[in-house]
Structure formats: C-alpha cells, structure tokens
Amino acid sequence: MRRAVIVRNRRVSLWSLLAIACRFVAGHHLDGRRRSDATFWTDGTSGEPSWWGNGRESRWALKAGRKRAAWRLSAIAVLIGLWRWRSVTEWSLALIMGPAVGVMTWRWLRAVRTMRHRRTLEQPMAEALAPFLGITPRAAEAALDVRPGYDATTGGQHVATLVLPDHWAAVPDQKTRVEQVIDARLGVEVKYAWRTAGYPMVLNVTRAPQPPVMVPFADVFADIEACPTDRVLLGADSGGQLVYGDLALEDPHWAVNAGSRRGKTTLLLLMAAQVGRQRQRVELPGDAPECARGRTTGIDPKRVGLAALAGLPGVELHSDPRDIEGMWAGIAAFRAHLEARVDEYAADPTVTFERSLLVMDELNQFAAMSAAHWREVKDKSDPALPPVWSDIAAVGWMGAQFRCNIVAVGQRLDQAAMGGLRDSFGVRLLAGYTPQQYAFLVGLPPYPRPQRPRGRFLLFEGGELTWLQLVYGSPEELRDYAMAGRGVACDLAQGGSHVPDTALLGLREATERGLLRCTLEAARRARADDPRFPVSRDSRGQEQLYAAGELRAWEATRPRAGVRRFEATP
Predict the structure, then answer these.
(1) How many other CB atoms are found less than 10 A from the CB of residue 349?
(2) pLDDT one-digit tens code per residue, 496-551
(3) Quick check: 468 and 457 in contact, CB under 8 A?
C-alpha cells in the first residue's frame, strides 16, 4: 500500500514538472494561475494587483505569452552558451547588447529631456494660461502640448496645440490674452489658428515664416546700386522683401551686438562699401572744404576684421592692438573732422557734407584694452576713464546734424562697453544675444529667442523689431564693389558686357565677372539640374569652359533672373 502511494506521488511529481515545463515554454505563469487578460499574442490591459500591493498590475503579468516565453528561452540559451561556447556567446552578447544599451540610453535621455521640457516650459505656461481659460493648472497642462525643440522649427511647422475647455467663451479679448501668454513663453514668432466653430475647440500654433537662408550679394547688386543716399541695403525679411537701414535718423548711430561667427564683420564691410560707393555719386563744388568730403575711420583691435577696407579711398584703419594710443588718435582725428564741419556750417549753412563713418569693431576688446593701458599711463590727477570716451561721446552727440555716424560692434554690449551712450544708438542689430543683452538694448517684451542661422539678425529701428537675413558677400567681392570701375565691380556694373560672346570661361570666372548673377554653388547646381543650361565648349584641366554669349542667354531666361523679391523659408 505504501509503495503504491509512493509510485502515485512520483507520477504526480513528474506530471507537475512536465506541466511546469510546458507553461515555461508557452509563456504561462508557472503556477497555472491567470493573472491578467493577456493572451499568447497580445498584451493585457488589466489584471490582479502585483504582489507588493501598490494596486497596479505588474508589467510581467500584462505581457503577452510569447514575450514571456522569449525572455525565458533567451535566458536559457545564454546560460547554455556560457557553459558550452563561452567565447562565442560573449561576442554575441556584446554585439546584441551594444545597440540595445544605446537604444535604452537614448530613451532615457529623451525621457529626461521631456521631463525637463514639461517642468521648465509646459507647466509654467499652463499655470499662466489657467486663469484665462477658467480651469485648473493641472487641467491646462493636460490640454497643452508644446513640441520639444520648437525653436529649431522652420516656417509653417507645428509648434504647439491647446485644447480649449468646452465652456470657454472664445471672445476676442480672451484670445488676445492667451496669445500674449504663449508669445511670452515661447519667445519665437508664431501664427495662431483658432478652431472654435465645433467641439472640441482647439488652438493650433505654427512657426511664422522665416527669412531666406542666404541673400547673395550678386543677386541684389542692382538694388544696392539703386539704393538712395543715406540708406544701405541690409538683407531680406521673413516676407522676402528687402530691408534697408537709414543713416539719417535723429539718433543715427548703430550698435551691433553679435557673438562670434554671426556675420558682424560682413555687416561692417557691407555698410562701409555701400557708403563709400555712394560718396562717389555726390558731386561737391570745386571750392568745397576738405571737411566736406566723407571719410571712414576703422578701429579694429582684432587686426584682420576690417582688412578688406585697407587702401580704399577715404578709409583710414587703426588695427594694431599694440598701439592703443594710435587708435585713440584715430578717433580724436575723427572728432576733429566733425568739429571742422561744425565750424564750416557756422560760416556757411548751405554747405553740403558727404557721409562719414566711425566703425569700431570688437568694442568690448577695445574698451578693456583702453582701460588697461590708461591705468598704466595716467597720472593721479587724471580722470578714471581714458579721454577717448570723451571723443566718442562728442561724435555721438553732434554727429546727426553733420552726417557723421558711429557703427559700434561688440559681443557683449553693456553700459561699460558703450561708455554710457546707449540712447545715442537709434539702430540696433542683435544676433546670438542673451536675455540680459536684449533687455539692455531693446527691452520690448516678450523676449525673442535668437535664431541660429549665420547672418540672421534682429533689427530694432524706430521702435519696431524685424528679423532679417543679411546680404552675404565675400570680403574681396565687397572690396571690389567699393572700388568703382575696377575688378568685379566694373564687370557687375556692366553686366559683363565687355566680355565677347565667343569668349570661353569657367563658372567661377562667369560669376565673378557678373555674367551669372548668382553664387558659384547655385551655378553648379543649375548645371546639374537645369536641362537648359549651356553645354561646355572646351575644358581647362578639370574645369569646364562655356561660351559667354550662351551664359548670358541662360542668365536672362533663368527663373530668378530680374527677380528682386526673395522667397521666405517655408
């Protein structure tokens, strides 16, 4: 009898072990209990609470049977591999776990960024919107969805969505308040699309159109030539329209706050080249005094920024960082030039003056070098500030009436760098700025985030803010333009008309001579994509040569020929 019971118990144990093995392979729970509504193929959505009693189902219980089986069999395979084929298994695990660890790290970083995005942007915005929506901050946060990385979007792309409460009246005043809150928090230009005719009511926010990525100098050459005196072409705005700067304002001086590699040196060269070219169009009387003729005085502690202006008519550069007093002397000479105009005007109010510029690059560096040098050379009875700031202040106060402008450029313009003359600068351009620099130079709420493309500036003039993309020209191109009648400037002005139609030249030479009024990169793209582009007639090494007449004919009929309006970034 006892032996029969033992045999029966052995049979029960074997059947139990076989059942457990089958459940193990099939992905069932080993005790045979069904803890959720998961099947072999699909994950579960509800089930019994987990054993630690937190009232939630465990992820293991909600997984599909095939997933549990895969994890179990993978673990068995790894153990067997480490026992029998250790080296092969270790290499396999390294290859498999490498991408897996990378994916897990990426998901963790994304979760951290999402958490930070919600804590620093969505939650404060929801708390600010809640009173105007008539709901709690938690409900506002649930109704708000702001796209991470929205500040890197282009025109027309989705930025945010706000699901409005059903009881909301959606009157114009309420809409204005909501838009003001969103503008202040996002800090980028956006457009609003209100959908309040049906339920649920939704506000969709998209990025406003952006300025073009590039405005090549050759494409706007005719517009620069037609620019009236005392105005300079700066670039194109978000609507594709050209933007001009006025040098004849009541506060005519310019302050440019831009970080490194933002295009501020290109801006200085562009302005100086246009002003120098405009001087040549003004015909002064033969008996005009010397002070009536315009000049450009450049202060460049970096030495290389304004090098392209060296040798141009009416340009005087002081760019030796070892000769601080030489820079001071240049500024003092510019003040003397201004005071001579004051005296001449007092003697003859009908006298005409050409435009003069005092261009100061790297103003922060110049201020620091001036302060250090002054501490070394000044006497105890001398004032704390070097006398050069008195000369700059005199130009700032009297320059408007006598056609003398200061263009000051720095990476961190503040009260110390500008010598207390901030209010004399009526035109201000900013790129790569901080909130503190924006508050100091502009101060109009809300704070707009700086845009990333190089040459993208925020223009503040006459109380208005405008995003623009600067005209881009190489230093050589701008120098040749300022030297009227020489080099590329002559070819551009004549449209390359002095080049015979039968002459053969490459694309680089054609763009430099003005036969093709586009960049070299654009010409190469057109050669690859446009079937109407001329066929090369010869070659010079690896460079293909084209007939000048055929290039002229293609230039006259290409889609953008003669167009003066730039397409904004979609």
Answers:
(1) 7
(2) 545 677 778 888 778 766 778 777 777 888 888 888 889 988 877 677 888 888 88
(3) yes
